[in-house]
């Protein structure tokens, strides 16, 4: 009886279990992970036929169906959002602000939020829409 472990005949046989584990981990993370953050509440942006350039976001203001607000995925009230935006812009670097509002939100509410952002020091706001034909 030999207690010495025999070496695999082929060097590829040694790496095969490692490859299997890596593929299992890859499948696990594909199923369990998310590639992008989700909105804090349901938002269906309006549809637009114009195509605009999508830039790297810095500040994202979200408006839900019921008018709730969120800044960069964190739900907050109007005063908190205005203070957070003003604080963010206080460092001197103008950050692009994107506004993602649900398509059913009244235009007056969207305009009021844009006015609130202007008062907080935002120079320009990009209104996010869905391209026509995706819906």
Task: Describe the structure in your own words.
It is built from three helices and seven strands. By secondary structure, the protein is α/β, with parallel strands linked by helices. Strands 4-3-2-5-6 form a five-stranded mixed beta sheet, covered by helices on one side. A two-stranded parallel sheet has the order 1-7. A hairpin with a 5-residue loop joins β2 and β3. The longest helix is centred in the N-terminal third of the chain and has 21 residues. The radius of gyration is 25 Å and the shape is elongated.
What characteristic shape results from the CA principal axes? elongated
What's the gyration radius in Å?
Answer: 25 Å
Biggest sheet: strand arrangement:
4-3-2-5-6
Indicate the percent of residues in helices. 25-40%
Beta-strand percentage range: 15-25%
| Secondary structure category | alpha/beta
Residue-averaged pLDDT, rounded? 82
Q: Largest sheet at a glance?
A: 5 strands, mixed
Number of DSSP helices? 3
Short synopsis of the structure:
With 135 residues, this protein is α/β, with parallel strands linked by helices. It is built from 3 helices and 7 strands.
Keywords:
135 residues; 7 strands; alpha/beta; two-stranded parallel ribbon; five-stranded mixed sheet; 34% helix
Layout of helices and strands:
Layout: H1 12-32, E1 47-48, E2 59-63, E3 69-71, E4 74-76, H2 78-89, E5 97-101, H3 107-119, E6 125-127, E7 130-131
Parallel strand pairs: 1-7, 2-5, 5-6
Antiparallel strand pairs: 2-3, 3-4
């Amino acid at each position: 009886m030999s207690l010495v472990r025999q070496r695999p005949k082929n060097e590829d046989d040694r790496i095969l279990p490692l490859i299997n584990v890596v593929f299992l981990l890859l499948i696990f993370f594909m199923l369990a992970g998310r590639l992008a953050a989700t909105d804090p509440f349901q938002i269906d942006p309006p549809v637009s036929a114009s195509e605009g350039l999508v830039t790297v976001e810095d500040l994202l203001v979200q408006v839900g169906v019921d008018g709730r607000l969120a800044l960069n995925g964190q739900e907050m009230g109007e005063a908190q959002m205005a203070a957070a935006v003003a604080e963010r812009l206080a460092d001197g670097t103008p950050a692009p602000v994107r506004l993602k509002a649900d398509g059913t939100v009244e235009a007056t509410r969207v305009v009021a939020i844009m006015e609130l952002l202007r008062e907080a020091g935002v120079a320009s706001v990009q209104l996010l829409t869905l391209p026509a034909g995706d819906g």
